[in-house]
Amino acid sequence: MNGVVEQMNDDDSASNLDPGTGADGFAVTVNVRDNIFVLGVSGTLDMVTAPRLTDSIQQELRKRPAVVIVDLTEVEFLASAGMTVLLTAHQQIGDTAQFAVVADGPAVARPLRLIGLDKLVTIHTTLDAALQASSEA
Questions:
Q1: Residue 53 belongs to a domain with what CATH number?
Q2: At residue 10, does pLDDT exceed 50?
Q3: How many domains, the chain?
Q4: What is the SS3 string spanning the chain?
Q5: 9 occurs within a structural domain
Q6: What's the pLDDT tens digit per position in 109-127?
Q7: What is the pLDDT of residues 37-54, one digit of tens each?
Q8: pTM of the model as a whole
Q9: Which of 9, 53, 97, 131 sees the fewest Cβ atoms within 10 Å?
Q10: 98 in any annotated domain
């Protein structure tokens, strides 16, 4: 994987497993606290970078998280390949964990609403809202 992967454990210490972003500016960071896995995505999420997000999600699912949140607030462009990754992850996770997406603004939230993904996947406008909802469930 050619993205940034940071894992936060319960004591807030971070270890950088793969420093630097890819040449295309795409990166995925992973923060873990209390079995809540937040994958922060930045850059362009398209057919070139979508497989890297898929790989990151698959790697984290092996750890059996209670909650998976994909934070797209730093994504500048969201193509259909990126939306497919989100839908596939949602379907794969099923009832084994909570799944949510953080998206706001015209570059990311609007395409998700236009194709109706917001009817299938829980979408929050902020990471704080997603974390709050996951702690209430």
A1: 3.30.750.24
A2: no
A3: 1
A4: CCCCCEEECCCCCEEECCCCCCCCCCEEEEEEECCEEEEEEEEEECCCCHHHHHHHHHHHHCCCCCEEEEEEEEEEEECHHHHHHHHHHHHHHCCCCEEEEECCCCCCHHHHHHCCHHHCCEEECCHHHHHHHHHHC
A5: no
A6: 999 999 999 999 999 999 9
A7: 999 999 999 999 999 999
A8: 0.83
A9: 9
A10: yes
